[in-house]
Amino acid sequence: xxxxxxxxxxxxxxxxxxxxxxxxxxxxxxxxxxxxxxxxxxxxxxxxxxxxxxxxxxxxxxxxxxxxxxxxxxxxxxxxxxxxxxxxxxxxxxxxxxxxxxxxxxxxxxxxxxxxxxxxxxxxxxxxxxxxxxxxxxxxxxxxxxxxxxxxxxxxxxxxxxxxxxxxxxxxxxxxxxxxxxxxxxxxxxxxxxxxxxxxxxxxxxxxxxxxxxxxxxxxxxxxxxxxxxxxxxxxxxxxxxxxxxxxxxxxxxxxxxxxxxxxxxxxxxxxxxxxxxxxxx
Length: 282
Fold this sequence. Notes:
Helix content: 25-40%
Shape: globular
């Protein structure tokens, strides 16, 4: 497995691959891999000739009060895990190369970033859209693979690719959970045992909603009346948002008509966790 840190070296190699009509698959990550990341890589391995995984903790998607400095990192472990699932190349640029002195260009995707995480993290998706476009220019992928746990991110990147006519297929892959239901996240390592028990209420609430929807419950008001008490009495938890949205526009809806996405974010202790689930009503 090759490791490249230099931007020009990465782009030159990618352009050489494309000149030979070899298909490139990119899995963008911030590292500290878990099984969710590995499932994206395993899928990506099936979609092209060269599987590239980027590892870059992107400073522009963190606000000053967030966890950029303490975000978990273990580059050697990540390389070992990536090699084990057949990754061809790790692209691990430095922040100083990605954003050199005088850098002043950013990309904004508007409507789909306004709610959900965008409401409490107003600069986050500008950073996401900017770094993703830079990675696409450097790696030249035919296919880019993202996880559905960061569902708003997936929709934002799909909108970015559509609106800017980018020649890359954006693929969303299913969220992966731990055996007890907690959505896999690099930030789960922040949780102490008591906080982790509280965090299980996130997936429990979503699974309860899916059960209710499968039985025919369509009303947001009725769903939330059942779900909100799950969180309200937990001193470890502060709910950021609980929303029922259209799958593509991410606009809030009051009734499920066919398919909808139920999404939430909560602070569990000092750790912010997100989760979501597809709800379907026949």
